[in-house]
Amino acid sequence: MEVRMDNIKIISSGEKIKNIRKSLGLKQDEITGNEITRNLISMIENDKVRLSTNAAEVIANNINNVCKQRNIDFRVTASYLLQDEKIQATLIVDKYIKFLNENSNNSSMNLSDDIEGIDQFLINNEVDINKKITVYKIIGNIFNLKNEYHSSYTYYLKAFENGNKILSNTELADLLIKLMYCCIKLNRYNEALYFGKLVLNYNQLPDKLKFKLSFNSALAYKKLNLYNESLEEINHITTSINELSNDNKFKIFTLKANCLQEIKYYKEALDEYKHILSVLGPGDRIKQLVIMCNMMDIYIYFEDIKNVKRYIDKIISIADNLEELPKDDYVPQIYLEIANAGVYINSLDIAKDYYRKAISSAKLTKQYELLLNSLDKLFDIYSKENNLNELDNIKNELLEIISIDSNLEVHRLIYKFIDFYNTNDDKDGIKALIKFVLER
Hints:
It is a single chain. By secondary structure, this protein is mostly helical. Among the domains are: 5-83, lambda repressor-like DNA-binding domains (434 Repressor (Amino-terminal Domain), Orthogonal Bundle); 284-357, no CATH class; 366-440, no CATH class. The protein has 23 helices and no strands. It has helices at residues 13-24, 28-32, 38-45, 53-69, 78-82, 85-103, 112-124, 129-145, 149-163, 169-185, 189-199, 207-223, 227-240, 246-262, 266-279, 285-301, 305-319, 331-344, 348-365, 368-385, 388-404, 411-423, 427-438. Helix 12 (207-223) runs parallel beside helix 14 (246-262), helix 13 (227-240) runs antiparallel to helix 14 (246-262) and helix 16 runs antiparallel to helix 17.
């Protein structure tokens, strides 16, 4: 059940006393006895005089005595009445931290409204800076787990900016590396490298962070087509970090093979891929699919249709027998590669089927650029067939993506639709599409 953050508010000591008194139906003289004047209690309740420790004890005792006499099940302490705004803010933030930690892995729970309320609370109230940083980091992690990288980036940056002068070097480096990761997911590769250079200001980092720094740098260089720089980072990892997990070995050697493939060192890339396959265990099915798709891509370049057919059969056989496949981040790309190979061998039924699967799994993992790529390829097939129903489905998928993320580069597919509608003299189709895009 969601906690409604707008129900949690800070109130002064005077407001607390007034609210308690009125909710219990008590008069002012009933809570003051003969020890505090009515004039003083009025000033306290209206926040014109600060509540003293002695006055708080008198008021709490009198309220409790009256409740006992009238059999009212209520008790208040002087310490509660004395809690000022700063103490209350700290207690509330502690509740927020507990709430966020308890629900951070609950994918079925929508925390957007709660997070908005928490964020506004931190803006409006004086809160311990360390607790504020903790909240921002947790929220950044929550959005990261949901693949919502714009929001994750925002909160990691807030945590870094607030903690720049008080967090340890390791904590600051960790935040910068998380920002690097978000930037890569958002295709902001130069910014990722900028954050990576900032990390170099911090010494004596643990190997875990050193790996993430170098791997993210290598990946950003690769995305910028700076393959030699990427290979240098990969070499730095393999020569400077003594122990790598099997998962990290897979990531780094696959990236190395990708770079070799891009600079047309195809034999070396194939050798690297074959070596990776040889060390993967029987449970590493998705990783096997990733490597086989990369190898198949090289065979397509070589126009080796025999090997392409051999690998596409292998890949489909494995992919179709795996459970929960669509939820893995690698899967949309695997489906896309199968579909592309289907086009290459002129098996359009395979291509259509796996482009659709790529679209569905890309939605689940929020990989919208890959989703657009799949829609683009599917458009090419159905426009040649003049299949208006399927093209209408693709258009609806496109408009849905634009609604979700207006920052995506959708111009290419938009232009393709406009060209298709123009060729078929569908002026209404053009007008409706342009109107929708302009309103976003």
